[in-house]
Amino acid sequence: MEKASVESSLCSLSLSPVLPRSCSAPTMKRGFLLHKNQKKPRGDQAPPTASSPSSAFHPDAFVLSFRSTSLTKPKVLPELLPIQPTIGTLSSDSLIQCRLQSTDGITECLLTPRVVSKILKTPGFPAPIKHNSTPAYRISETNCMGLGMFATRALNTGDLIIAERPLLVCIDDSCIRELRKVQNDKEAHNDIAEAIFQLVVDRLTKENKAHFYALHNSRLGGEEEKWRLVGIMSTNAYSENFNVPGIVRDNEESYSVVMKDCSRINHSCCPNVTTIFDIPSFSLQFRAARPISGGEEITYAYAGVERAYVNRSAMLKPYGITCRCPPCLSPTLASDTSCTTMASRVTSIEQRLFNHFHADTPASTTDMARKMLEISGIFQDARCLVREMEKEGMQACEGYVRAVKFMYMSFIPVRHVKTVPSNFDFDNRDIMKQLLVKTKRVVLSHQGEEHDDYVRLEEELNAPWW
What we know:
36% helix; alpha+beta; 15 helices
């Protein structure tokens, strides 16, 4: 690889100079919120307007309704509802009931004006959903967890399993002002939450309503059984925030997303899928977090995989789940320590890498040697961390994609060092290419093919020097 290309590669992936995000996953419902910023615009396509609907959609593809007002064409949001609610003070009066309709399905929504505006202004919206030419999954009975999703063929890391339009998307009950006022009164809280969810469920089509009520309710038989919608939502909903600017923490304005097929995916503390919400097609994509064999069950983590066994078990108890993944069947102190310290170790490597790339240019041969040994140490630590996370089945964790990126970024200069480590031939471009392909697939799995990092890695892989 030429010097210019090496220097370009060092800066090709995103690296934050501030404290990075934790590799932990939110534990609300099935929530696994990855901040996938830096999306690559889909061409030069402008946000849709009332006069330029997408030809791929039905003419009344996006139907907005607020209270008794229904609109059959998209409108500029400030003209429709100039309310910009402050986070923490949302009320049901400042929400918009929306319907997204196309040949890919119908989704009923209850959203804030800010999120509706974000969706309408997203480049490429509305777009058709991406579908596999060959089905990659089936829904069938499991041994002990009811219905589940299974792979119908072998899948590689990053492969698309399914992209599905939600049945419904509803603002989470923790974001409603009336519910925050009664958060310590379970009876009053659930009564209001049930009424809010009912607004959305009542608007479902007959077919979608049947799919919704067929989903599992983990609260059946318990003291909260009478709140049927609350039970179905809490059991089956994924959590999403649509990356709206200004939202700092995921739980400040989050949404419950319920799917027909993907809500059938069962839990594992060693999940094999990641999720990406694609706003242009308004679909939730599920991609393989690691190689998956044909016939293997598709699993997702309902609880944060970075937590200790005791904490994970407590979080799964409301679902009535006793996890049978390897770390839960044979919990050890070493495994718990590995999981609970993963986030801080990823943060440490990122900070060291940032300091290395932003340090002053070496003034002498000695300084250059010290700098190369420093980056070699970063590479070794990142490589050990990646292997440890793979051993613990943490490939779906956000910290994993960051660790793989850091391993790739630190390897580029290290490959010119002849002294460490002794078991690597740094002049062998095959090793470099293998690491590049691995990084590209992991980035695809976690951030999608529109993300800047994936685009840059694809360009690197297609460069002439290979």
